[in-house]
Design a protein that fits this description.
With 426 residues, the chain is α/β, with parallel strands linked by helices. Helix content is 39%, strand content 16%. β1, α3 and β2 form a beta-alpha-beta unit. The longest helix is centred in the last third of the chain and has 17 residues. It is globular, with a radius of gyration of 22 Å. The N and C termini lie close together (11 Å). 56% of the residues are buried. GO terms for molecular function: ATP binding; glycerate kinase activity.
């Protein structure tokens, strides 16, 4: 039986490569200002973006190094060497003390920028957790607890960020307010469905259309267990985010430089060149991972019954409502649900992975990116007497795929354009 794993990995790698800072950033960088360039970066691609900016300004444009400075805050294990822009590695998905200090320093650097200076803000997915600046009256521990509750709730990333923005001194346009004397140019890699600017890293430099009332409604919707101090903060009008028309945005521009759709298109191109008819389900899928897997399994089984050779591809960001005590992430849970539904179909294979290289996990650079399933998975399931339904019930996809040897391990990719899922039907 043909091994489709190299092709599955090539499809995934093409999606990642299409959004890598080394490829995409330099064409979008603004001209040198009269004054200094102060680079403020956050997210899983922050250090790679900062290094690419340094190459552009220092090596290509021969800028005096004294005129370039800044701070890039990225996830632990995602740092790269830089020359003038300092790198701090911080917690994700749950913030830590390093992110707390980095956010305070970022705000201070923004406040120091003058009218002739350029604040170059480089954002990628993960910035919400990396830049942690709790609202007045909310402790760091209380903010961490809110993040944990949101992560376990099954709330989509957009709703999570609505709450985060209203408990912050840097999100929801507040970084722009801190640096409003300078010109502000934000370049962002989108990791959110529909590429909503105010949702990427919780929109630190753009107007926020959501309100305190929206944040309170989400807390109620998911029955989040939060401290009284957090409730008071969400009732305090001083914590309303910055809106359209705020002076913070008078000299601010925002540009998306990488989108999930472009990465999905790159993945589709590889599948097409390999001889598959492709079914593209879009780059903005949301929903419970196991429910989406069930729908995709139906599509695969239908194609197989009709004798078609197809590749079913999708992007977006799925969620998991955690009720068990296991380990995993949305991509692993999706793959596990697929394994349960496709175990009797040896000519179907699939990959589900997060383009940042980490799917769920505990914030380690060695966390799996997702999982792969094929006929070998089904054979090991049978020989080891593994019941995928039992692992699903405990949200323990990592243990299942550790046993079968099917975890997708990529390491940090230094970008983040959501998830890529592909099912090959031969």
């Amino acid at each position: 039986m043909t091994d489709r794993r190299p092709l599955l990995r090539a499809i995934f790698d093409a999606a990642v490569a299409a959004a890598h800072p080394d490829v995409i950033l330099s064409a979008h960088l603004p001209p040198v200002p009269k004054g200094k360039i102060i680079c403020l970066a956050a997210g899983k691609g922050a250090a790679a973006m900062a290094a690419a900016a340094e190459r552009h300004y220092l090596d290509e444009l021969k800028l005096d190094p004294a005129r370039l400075s800044g701070l890039a805050t990225t996830r632990h294990g995602h740092g790269v060497p830089t020359r003038r822009i300092r790198v701090i590695e911080a917690g994700h998905p749950v913030p830590d003390e390093a992110g707390l200090k980095a956010a305070d320093e970022t705000l201070a650097l923004a406040q120091e920028a003058g009218p002739d200076d350029l604040l170059l803000v480089l954002l990628s997915g993960g910035g919400s957790a990396n830049w942690i600046a709790p609202a007045i009256g909310v402790t760091f521990a209380q903010k961490q607890q809110v993040n944990r509750a949101l992560l376990r709730s099954g709330a989509p990333i957009g709703e999570m960020n609505v709450v985060r923005k209203h408990l912050s001194r840097i999100k929801g346009g507040r970084l722009a307010r801190a640096g409003q004397r300078a010109e502000i140019v934000t370049l962002a890699i989108s990791d959110v469905p529909h590429d909503e600017p105010s949702a990427i890293a919780s929109g630190p430099t753009v107007p926020d259309p959501t309100t305190l009332a929206d944040a309170r409604a989400i807390v109620a919707k998911y029955k989040l267990n939060i401290d009284d101090a957090v409730r008071r903060a969400l009732d305090d009008p001083n914590n309303e985010s910055c809106k359209v028309g705020d002076a913070a945005f008078d000299r601010a521009t925002f540009e998306l430089i990488a989108r999930p759709k472009a990465s999905l298109d790159a993945a589709i191109k590889v599948a097409t060149e390999a001889g598959y008819a492709t079914i593209g389900l879009g780059a903005d899928l949301e929903g419970e991972a196991r429910d989406v897997a069930a729908e995709h399994a139906r599509l695969a089984l239908k194609a197989r019954s009709e004798g078609k050779r197809v590749a079913i591809l999708s992007g977006g960001e799925l969620t998991v409502t955690v009720t068990g005590n296991g380990r995993g992430g949305p991509n692993q849970e999706y793959a596990l649900a697929l394994a349960a539904l496709l175990k009797d179909t040896p000519d179907v294979s699939a990959l589900a992975g997060d383009t940042d290289g980490a799917d769920g996990g505990a914030g380690s650079a060695s966390d799996p990116a997702g999982a792969i399933i094929d006929h070998a998975t089904f054979a090991r399931m049978k020989s080891l007497a593994l019941d995928p339904a039992a692992y699903l019930a405990n949200n323990d996809a990592t243990a299942f795929f550790t046993a079968t040897g099917d975890l997708l391990q990529t390491g940090p990719t230094l970008t983040n354009v959501n998830d890529v899922r592909v099912i090959l039907v031969d």
